[in-house]
Amino acid sequence: MSGGGVTLKHRTKPPPLRRDQALFLDFDGTLVEIARAPSLVRVPAELPQLLGELADWLGGAVAVVSGRPLDELARMIDPFVGPVAGQHGLERRYCDGSVTRCPVSPKLAEIRSVLAKFAARYDGVVLEEKGGSVALHYRQAPTARESCETLIRRLALESDGAFEALDGKMVTELRPRSGGKGRAITEFLAEAPFRGRVPVFIGDDTTDEDGFAAVNQLGGISIHVGGGTTIARHNLATVGDVWAWLARGSPNKSRGHKARDWCSEQRIGQTATATGREQGVAQQASDRHRPDPARHRRDRASDGEHGIKINVADDAAAAVR
Ligand SMILES: [Mg+2]
Questions:
Q1: Which of 6, 79, 189, 197 qualifies as a FRET site for 64, CA 20 to 30 Å off?
Q2: Is residue 258 within 8 Å of 47, Cβ to Cβ?
Q3: 114-131: per-residue pLDDT in tens?
Q4: Is 96 part of the annotated catalytic residue set?
Q5: How far, in Å, CA of 277 to CA of 285, rounded?
Q6: CA 258 – CA 205 distance, rounded (Å)
Q7: Which residues pair with 135 in a beta bridge?
């Protein structure tokens, strides 16, 4: 099993990337610096090329695994056309370019409506609509954290298990339980060109912990970016260090070093503080990542399976207190 979280001093630098491995990469806070809002993130021009070179070196076994919507993520890393998982695995793009998306619960519209009313009452709270999931960002309104998390948890409880709350860096999210980066990684590993390879996963946030759990369980390499408590076994300090480490596996060795300099200039307060909440998430990361190919549908459709009870017509007011 994954074991509990460990502090930074107990983690080690990751060994060099090997050609028989499969590489899974988070996006925000791992490949690019976190910005004040998701839409403000700056993507190094060399990122698609770096991903392409790594894919060539690893036989195509490179995937970006992010909480962002797949289409948005695909635009940001274009012209890289390799595998991608969006919305924590609810959406996936395969090597052949085909895309699958999990069905969207029709009840999500009610949840979205509640959260939109809530966000409208808080200056700086931003509602992100991802398709199958929703998120409240409070980076520009840090005092709203408790209210945001309370509301998201309440909506998760009232969904009768269909949705779960997920807290990240200055963001709290409501997503279908069928998601999760650990599951996405495990499902990729069941298919070519990932099958039979040792997984390596790099991430920076609590939302990456179940990805670390999956990789640890499979005997792979789990790498956490920044400080804080995590179940990852290795550490890289900054986004720039991630680039430098990746560049060691790329034919263009200078790419990572140039990007590290760029990251140093662009860095916007990436948090590295361990909190009790983060520790709890790390320790509770579980084996929720068994392959379940049937959960994906080739077409987006309403499934009507989730009996979500949204009896909180004025939940926003209740949460604001
Ligand atoms: Mg991240």
A1: 6
A2: no
A3: 999 999 998 999 999 888
A4: no
A5: 12
A6: 25
A7: 128, 173
